[in-house]
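Action item from last week, closing it out:
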Amino acid sequence: MTASALQALVLAAGRGTRTRSARPKVLLPVLGLPLVEHVLRALSAVGADPATLVVGHQAAEVEAAFAGRGLHFVRQDPPLGTGHAVLSARSVFAAHRDRTLLVLNGDLPLLRPETLLSLLEAHGRGGEATVLSAVLDDGGAYGRIVRDSKGQVTRIVEAKDAAPGERALREINVGVYAF
């Protein structure tokens, strides 16, 4: 996919309460780089332009860390969840309606460009939305993918909200979507 066909929205507004750190989660170092840098590198490798970071918690610190990189920043204030974070940036991605929109969590340090390209290829075969999922032996605290009898995704349920049968599902939401 070329830069003219792809834009990205990176969700980097969360508090990261499970990290128990005073620093924004997306700035915590992983292999010597801020967590979100790994996501930005994967996006750059697939030609996402523009790339927008939705920031919230300690927004000024996150913006300063990535100033001068050609990124767009949108502040989510107050933080009202993932859907609200996407809506906060609507004016940016709506300006490029002809481009595929990738929405990614900012805390995916193992995300590879090849994975994004596979997702985009699948998305290009049809459909309005494509979600990246993984199958784990134990889904832990991740959101579960719920499918209907035809194998179509019907919803994503957070682990804390899942019924016991849903918590037993092994397919989890990775936090990467194409629209």
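Closing note: Strands lie at 6-12, 29-30, 33-34, 51-55, 72-75, 100-105, 130-135, 144-147, 153-157, 171-178.
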